[in-house]
Amino acid sequence: MQASTSLGSACRTQLAGKRVVSGHRYPNARIALKPAKSGAVASAVVAEDKWLARTVKEVATPSSLAALREQSKSALATLRMPTTRNEDYRFTDIAPLLRTNVQPAAAGAAVPSELLAAHELPGAAARLVVVDGVLRPELSSGLSGLPAGTYVGPLAGAPEAVKQKLGSLSNSRGGPFAVLNGSLVPEVLVVAVPAERQLEGPLFVLHLASGATGADEVAANAPRLLLHAGTGSSAELVEEYVALPGGRRYLTVAVGELFLEAAASVRHSYVQREGEGSFHFKSTLVHQAERSQYTLAEASVGGAIARHDLVIQQGGPETHTQMSHFLLCGPSQTHDLHSRLTLDHPHGTANQLHKCIVSHASGRGVFDGNVKVNRLAQKTDAGQLSRNLLLVPLATVNVKPNLQIIADDVKCTHGCAVSDLRDDELFYFRARGISAESARQALVFSFGAEVIQRMGHPVLQKRVQDDVSRTLLSAEPFAASA
Amino acid sequence: MAHQILRSSRIASSTRVAQRSSRVHAVSVRCAAAPADVMLEVKDLTASIAGTHTPILKGVNLTIRNGEVHAIMGKNGSGKSTLSKVLVGHPDYEVTGGTAVFKGKNLFEMEPEERSHAGLFLSFQTPIEVPGVSNVDFLRMACNSRRKALGHPELDPLEFYAYIMPKLEMLNMDPTFLNRNVNEGFSGGEKKRNEILQLAVLEADMAILDEIDSGLDIDALRDVAKAVNQLRSDDTGVLMVTHYKRLLDYIKPDFVHIMQAGEIVKTGDMSLVDQLEAGGYATL
């Protein structure tokens, strides 16, 4: 058998005055932050962590959520919020969050109709408006028009087999924020697509969050999604996170658990456009059965500190995973992507494209992308590329694309580039009479567009691109080129 | 002297195109009467690779008058492409000596975008792809930059469509071309055609075509050459860089230069090309 392991890594770190930190000191060290799985502890348990003890309030628990709440609370009791001393949070300092008090959001927040009108998704099969974690049927549309057998709604009414899956991924592989979500989540939105059903048009989940009023308070927005795609089914999910008017002081701690049965196909677009100054922590946990296909396109442009923990497990042969991410870090924004993809079966494919722009000296991008090709995952074809643009001096990215390959007959590549714009790109514009500054703007715009376009939906793309333009304009003028 | 004429009449100049076959003859006649204005004059140009200071051009002399078509041939590494890039101000090269005067202005005192505004155009050998920027936006940006520099009003999107449609038609190009991203996923032929479309949109006075025949099949080469011929006029100059005679069969040059080790070592007409085809560079 032929062993064809090629590991091409091109690390370009350049530009004097720009701080580039690539790689961790202990590449394989992982600090375990797994919740204790006892579950027998009563809900009265007080968290050991001071911030958690101070901030996590008792939240009403629907009976369908009782088990999850119980498990999360017992885990919470021994959980400590991570600091930069934890490897997984080494570059993402959540100290500003830990100085706040988390308060439950007031129920039934008013949603202006203009906000809803500004967040349409033409062609969507249904629009589900989730306010502070609670599905609001009166604001949603298209629910009644879904094909028979497709369930979209709260956990209580979901098919029993799907209900059983709640927490099965997050309990074992979610991080501290997934545990926090389990303690705060008011309701779970379930999407269940039956076997062989091809859902036409995307399911558009619009997450809205209201802010807290107190100076050191943040309102908790803890939405949770459980998606089950039956054998041979296909579906598209679009998630967008935005603030309600005036919503600055809030914490979104979201969890999505996605189960793809054999030969199921799920396209997932995730757009993080949270309010300025807010906190956003999302965990997406995906289990893919054999021959299933999961395609994620992500854009993270809002909030102050935002982190996405993406954990994908290929649970069968000939499984395909595609991930593309675009993160824009403007003034005082930290955007973190931690992805973990595990391949355990032969003939799997995986492709990841990570693109990050840091447009301000106080911005920071963090990427830890782990692809693990285990012993049985022969004939894997995996590619991983991280491209980072630092537009100003002192802009920072901490990137660690990493492959762990145990199988010996695989094709894997990964690469990482940290740079300013390429000279030949700029020159192409200038040779056509376009000024260096206009060229830079167009190229910066274009840099993210490669990922954003993968979402389809021009209206959604435009919302993201408008945010991008705003952030780029708010930053100090581009440093003069050449 | 510098003349900035709007050459909208150029498009209708099919009669001129028809006369091209007797071009060489016509030039000699005209030279005897009143020589056309000099478009580009390069004198003793030396240039090296920026950073490494490896000299590439070692004293190039070249004069192109209005209406003339010149071709530069030479082996790989002889400096053909470097010459074309140096003229438009590519940052990979630095000029170490000599002059280049374009329409009376010193090229080397101008930024790349100013050279473009002045009417100098380079068709790139390998145009870059720009995902996320549509062709029509890019073309309009380029067009308006030049219009602004020339003191003409900029075109809004609607006006620009009216402006570009006849050009697409002339180049026999599909309008869907406009909505695609700049060169993204284009075939070799489409990229070259897109370069010629940019040339048409910018209405440049002097076109430098760097190996526009590379990577083209027969049909695509014919189309691209036809487009270039349609854009030619008595007021424009063309400098082609090529390895092959077949391009010159379509776009007939008035002058053929042979470049070797950074210098133009021989100048003649099409007969030089025939000589090359027959015996290679060694026979020159």
UniProtKB/TrEMBL annotation, chain A:
It holds the Pfam family SUFBD_core. GO terms for cellular component: iron-sulfur cluster assembly complex; plastid. Residues 62-203 form the SUF system FeS cluster assembly SufBD N-terminal domain. Residues 218-447 form the SUF system FeS cluster assembly SufBD core domain. It comes from the Eukaryota. One of its GO terms (biological process) is iron-sulfur cluster assembly. InterPro entries: Fe-S_cluster_assembly_SufBD (IPR055346), SUF_FeS_clus_asmbl_SufBD_core (IPR000825), SUF_FeS_clus_asmbl_SufBD_sf (IPR037284), SufBD_N (IPR045595). This is Uncharacterized protein. It comes from Chlamydomonas reinhardtii.
Automatic annotation (TrEMBL), chain B:
GO terms for biological process: iron-sulfur cluster assembly; thylakoid membrane organization. Coiled coil: none annotated. SUPFAM superfamilies: P-loop containing nucleoside triphosphate hydrolases (SSF52540). It comes from the Eukaryota. InterPro entries: AAA+_ATPase (IPR003593), ABC_transporter-like_ATP-bd (IPR003439), ABC_transporter-like_CS (IPR017871), FeS-cluster_ATPase_SufC (IPR010230), P-loop_NTPase (IPR027417). GO terms for cellular component: chloroplast; iron-sulfur cluster assembly complex. Pfam families: ABC_tran. One of its GO terms (molecular function) is ATP hydrolysis activity. This is Uncharacterized protein. It comes from Chlamydomonas reinhardtii.
